[in-house]
Write a structure and sequence with these properties.
Layout: E1 2-6, H1 10-20, E2 26-30, H2 33-42, E3 47-50, H3 59-68, E4 77-81, H4 87-95, E5 100-103, H5 108-123, H6 136-186, E6 188-194, E7 199-202, H7 204-209, H8 222-227, H9 232-248, E8 252-259, E9 265-277, E10 280-290, H10 292-345, H11 352-376, E11 385-387, H12 389-404, E12 408-414, E13 420-423, H13 425-442, E14 447-457, H14 460-465, E15 473-481, H15 488-491, H16 513-523, E16 527-532, E17 538-547, E18 569-573, H17 577-588, E19 593-597, H18 600-608, E20 616-620, H19 628-638, E21 643-648, H20 653-656, E22 667-669, H21 674-691
Parallel strand pairs: 1-2, 1-3, 3-4, 4-5, 12-14, 18-19, 18-20, 20-21, 21-22
Antiparallel strand pairs: 6-7, 6-10, 8-9, 9-10, 11-13, 13-17, 14-15, 15-17, 16-17
Helix pairs in contact: 2-3, 4-6, 10-11, 10-17, 11-16, 12-13, 13-16
Length: about 700
């Protein structure tokens, strides 16, 4: 059987052919109704299977033409459609002479059965008898109605397609805008290099990161413009990476500082991946992200960690230095005390007086050294008071001039109406002296030394950038020289005890000058910063919290009468037997009766159990068992009539670990002189006498 298959879709024609050819039928194909009519003129066709919607001549017209043409045989006609699928469409098809109406898709078995049913039905009807069809007017009306409906449906479908297209375009535009916004927020630019055409495409963010105008005529070689902003070593690394991606398809990622077209310094991450088709590189797609803020935050974090590490290191060294100085002070107390005792017993013409004086002088120098160690470790006994920094500097000016020599230009730039600071005036003088001496050593060939003071109030932004600086108001002392400067390695160690850059033949520095400055500044609650580069001099900037207080205008006379005691009983408590014996001898020669106790527990037993009532209790602060601080607290509560003196090589935070010292209890630092001890005992005796009823 010859089957004429009419359809403008080649896949549909192939489907019909694949179903009926294996059954022994011959399929002749036509793309529209007009081609089908021409074939019918030359071929004897047994069956026509036709689509409806086709160009030039549709299936309805083809069927109606065949049924109207008296010269064409009454060939079975089947519609096979996916467009006209309604009941009215089938009704029209049958009225114009169709034998069946099959809707796509249809299973092959069902398709074959329905075709066979049509062929069986028409086999009993003579081929020359035409089927009854509606008159032309009725058919034309039905055809036009179906055509209008289809056109309306097509218009609705087209409108829906246009609507969906607009929605798709709007969504695409939103996606593009969102992508641009997120790229701008993330500072992430993208680029694409077409290897075959050697063309480069950049996103808007890429232009912004490079400070380039995307509309400029000078963007012909974007790759060259981008590469030249890298440092030389990174530029070579990038060129090698691009070469590897072209040869071997290797992706890459690289972080680097970058200089834009407007000389803006940024830190970027550049990355690229290849696009390979059929084993051939066709494109390179890459990104460029600005990570400057993250890099700066990382650098700030590293700086803070380094500051913390340095502070922890300095604190550890300070603990060691403080412990050594404390023990050494105990030894010096004995040495200086016995030297004073011997000296007081020698005749004025005794030849040994000169030797003993030398011992005393050496001991005092050693005491100064331990005091510097204690200052560095922030454990020195200090006497804080309101200090006028400008007066302190001007009082030292003549001495400083003699220190630095005539070849150095010395300039003072002192601010006006500066606030006072709470500090030990001796320590502040020591800071100034040490920094000036340090500057003089750095200017062996002469130079300029400038001391500057000014008032400084911090802001939230400043404190956020410098979290260790937490006060609102500071007094700033700046000491600047034009000397040889320091490299980074030297600057890292300058605050460490005993570190010195003086070589043989250049003097014998103790290495405690700057560490002492460091300790004094921190003990005053301040901060110190150093800026220095080889050949460019050094600047020390010291910030000490400003006080809102003003000193009393009354001049207080602190001179005490140094007359001898009147056999008042003094109880001395000290766990170091050498210091205990020495202190007892010294005080007994002052006209006082003495009693000795080797521990605070023994002293408490003597007072509570044995009924001893000393006029003055002198106790070491730190001892095994019951501490001197605890002993003083107990005696103050139970026997307020007993005067108390605490002696120690420590003060401040170390003494506080052993109890709270009441502010009216005096503290004397070891090693102490006979005169200082005598004055202090006399003052305590007088104060307790005034408190007696």
């Amino acid at each position: 059987m010859k089957i004429l298959c009419v359809d403008d879709n080649k896949d549909n024609l192939y489907l019909i052919e694949s179903v009926f050819t294996p059954l022994g039928h011959e399929c002749i194909k036509a793309a529209n109704g007009e081609q089908a009519l021409r074939i019918l003129q030359d071929e004897d066709i047994d069956l026509i299977i036709s689509d409806i919607l086709m160009p030039i001549m549709d299936g309805f017209t083809l069927c109606r033409t065949i049924r109207k043409d008296e010269n064409l045989p009454n060939i079975p006609f089947i519609f096979f459609t996916a467009t006209y699928t309604g009941e009215q469409d089938e009704e029209l098809a049958r009225k114009i002479g169709a034998d069946d109406f099959i809707v796509k898709p249809c299973e092959p078995e069902d398709f074959v059965k329905r075709v066979q049913k049509v062929m069986d039905k028409v086999s009993c009807v003579p081929n020359d008898i035409k089927c009854d069809i509606e008159d032309e007017k009725t058919v034309l009306k039905l055809y036009n109605d179906r055509l209008v409906r289809k056109l309306e449906q097509k218009m609705l479908e087209t409108e829906e397609e246009i609507k969906q297209h607009k929605q798709t375009m709007a969504a695409l535009q939103r996606s593009e805008e969102l992508l641009k916004t997120t790229q701008a927020l993330g500072k992430l630019g993208g680029w694409e290099y077409d290897v075959l055409n050697e063309t480069m495409y950049w996103t808007e963010e890429m232009y912004r990161l490079h400070d380039l105008d995307p509309n400029s005529d000078d963007n012909s070689n974007l790759m060259a413009n981008s590469i030249k902003g890298f440092p030389e070593d990174k530029r070579q690394e990038l060129l090698k990476a691009m070469d590897r991606i072209k040869k071997y398809g290797e992706s890459f990622e690289m972080d680097s500082w970058y200089t834009t077209q407007k000389n803006r310094k940024i830190y970027i991450r550049a990355a690229a991946i290849p696009e390979i088709v059929d084993g051939k590189l066709v494109k390179v797609i890459g990104t460029c992200q600005d990570l400057t803020e993250a890099k700066q935050a990382e650098m700030a974090k590293h700086e803070l960690e380094e500051q913390l590490r340095q502070a922890q290191k300095m604190d550890s060294i300070g603990q060691l230095a403080g412990g050594v100085a404390h023990d050494f002070n105990n030894i010096l107390t004995v040495i200086l005390g016995y030297a004073e005792e011997i000296l007081s017993n020698l005749h004025s013409n005794d030849p040994l007086r000169e030797d003993i004086n030398e011992i005393l002088n050496a001991g005092l120098r050693a005491s100064s050294l331990t005091r510097q160690l204690l200052t560095f470790s922030r454990k020195q006994v200090i006497k804080p008071q309101l200090v006028d920094i400008n007066s302190c500097i001007t009082n030292l000016y003549k001495m400083l001039m003699r220190l630095i020599g005539e070849d150095i230009d010395f300039e003072l730039s002192l601010g006006e109406d500066l606030p006072y600071i709470w500090a030990d005036i001796g320590q502040i003088e020591q800071v100034i002296m040490n920094l000036v001496i340090n500057a003089r050593e750095a200017m062996q060939m002469g130079g300029k030394l400038t001391i500057t003071t000014f008032d400084f109030r911090t802001t939230k932004e400043f404190r956020a950038k410098h979290p260790l600086i937490d006060k609102d108001h500071y007094l700033v002392l700046k000491v600047q020289d034009t000397g040889c400067g320091m490299d980074a390695a030297t600057k890292e160690h300058i605050f460490e005890p005993f570190f010195t850059t003086k070589g043989p033949g250049k003097g014998h520095g103790t290495g405690l000058g700057l560490p002492t400055v460091y300790g004094i500044v921190l003990q005053a609650g301040g901060h110190i910063n150093v800026e220095s580069k080889p050949g460019r001099g050094t600047t020390f900037v010291i910030m000490i919290p400003a006080s809102e207080e003003k000193p009393d205008s009354q001049d207080k006379d602190s001179n005490l009468n140094t007359t001898q005691g009147k056999s008042e009983l003094v109880l001395i408590v000290e766990d170091d037997s050498s210091i205990l014996d020495l202190t007892g001898k010294i005080i007994s020669k002052m006209g006082y009766r003495i009693s000795l106790a080797e521990s605070a527990d023994r002293a408490l037993e003597m007072i509570e159990n044995e009924g001893m009532r000393p006029r003055v209790l002198i106790t070491d602060a730190v001892m095994p068992g019951l501490s001197g601080i605890e002993l003083a607290t107990i005696i103050r509560v139970k026997h307020p009539e007993i005067g108390i003196i605490i002696m120690s090589g420590y003060a401040g935070d170390v003494v506080a670990k052993y109890g709270e010292v009441q502010p009216d209890i005096p503290l004397i630092q070891k090693p102490f002189s006979r005169t200082d001890m005598a004055k202090l005992i006399q003052k305590v005796v007088e104060d307790t006498a005034q408190q007696q009823p």
